[in-house]
Amino acid sequence: MTGIIDVGGGMRDIYGAGVLDCFIDNNITFDICIGVSAGSANLASFIAGQRGRTYRFYAEYAARKEYMSFDNMFRSGSYFNLDYIYSVLSDTDGEDPLNFDALEKSTSELITVVTNAHTGEAEYFDKKNIIKNDLWAVKASCAMPVACKPFRHDSKEYVDGGVADPIPVEKAFEMGCDRVYVIIPRPPLEKNHEFSYLMKPFLKDYPSVLALMAKRPEIYNRQLHVLDEYVKDGKVVLIAPDNDKGLNMITKDKDKLTAYYHKGYNDAKYIMQNAEP
């Protein structure tokens, strides 16, 4: 079986949207699709065959204050309005609905990675949890600490899947994949930044998340080293830019975002032409 992982990364993951649109254009599919944070939304549209849909979310809708803004933060405590993005826009009566029927009929499995806000453990939800007009699992996976309040579902609270399992390549192999494509929408370099103690007031009720955020560079770097070994063994094909062009997780500049989308598309085209089968 073949797998693909999109690790997310806020607005930077328009790069992943470009990669996946290139695969749609070339009729490339995967048995197992694992999405972390924004990567879960990218892959839902990919499996549904909706070329260009995620591009619109990053390059067009994100400019709206309803999507992400400090106004949202003051009103609700979340910079990103996950209900606006994944309900108002994405429901069947929304402006740009996800094709739930195509997603359900696809033979590709979708795994959404979340972090339990109280245990600090990664949890993995399959396609059964991508419910028509209730994208709760995607919202949970995208709930970045500080930028979003923890997402509540069925009496549990969740935060961004990348907190506990930022590069879930081991999960893909556990599920039986022989080869995995991994999208990282920024140069895959070791993280060395120190933990920001400004996070403490926001996460005082979630000590497990706070502890994970403090160890995040260590977790990410360890997984990056594992990924490198799989790349050397030919078990993983890494798709990542050599430069992030100054984009960050909340970039709204449409020209920069569009250029990054095309970089993802072209990098995927290069990989298809040069990667060993």
Can you offer a commentary on this structure?
This protein is α/β, with parallel strands linked by helices. It is built from 11 helices and 8 strands.
Report the end-to-end length measured between terminal Cα atoms.
13 Å
Order of helices and strands: EHEHHHHHEEHEEHEHHEH
Largest sheet geometry: 8 strands, mixed
Number of strands: 8
Radius of gyration: 17 Å
Mean pLDDT: 94
Tell me the overall shape: globular
Strand content: 5-15%
Low-confidence stretches: none
Q: What is the helix content?
A: 40-55%
The total of helices stands at 11
Defining traits:
11 helices; alpha/beta; 8 strands; 277 residues; 8-stranded mixed beta sheet
Sum this structure up briefly:
By secondary structure, this protein is an alpha/beta fold. It has helices at residues 14-25, 38-47, 53-59, 70-76, 82-88, 100-105, 136-141, 169-174, 200-203, 207-232, 254-274; strands at residues 2-6, 32-36, 109-116, 122-125, 151-153, 156-160, 179-183, 236-239.
How are the secondary structure elements laid out?
Layout: E1 2-6, H1 14-25, E2 32-36, H2 38-47, H3 53-59, H4 70-76, H5 82-88, H6 100-105, E3 109-116, E4 122-125, H7 136-141, E5 151-153, E6 156-160, H8 169-174, E7 179-183, H9 200-203, H10 207-232, E8 236-239, H11 254-274
Parallel strand pairs: 1-2, 1-7, 2-3, 7-8
Antiparallel strand pairs: 3-4, 3-6, 5-6
Helix pairs in contact: 1-2, 1-11
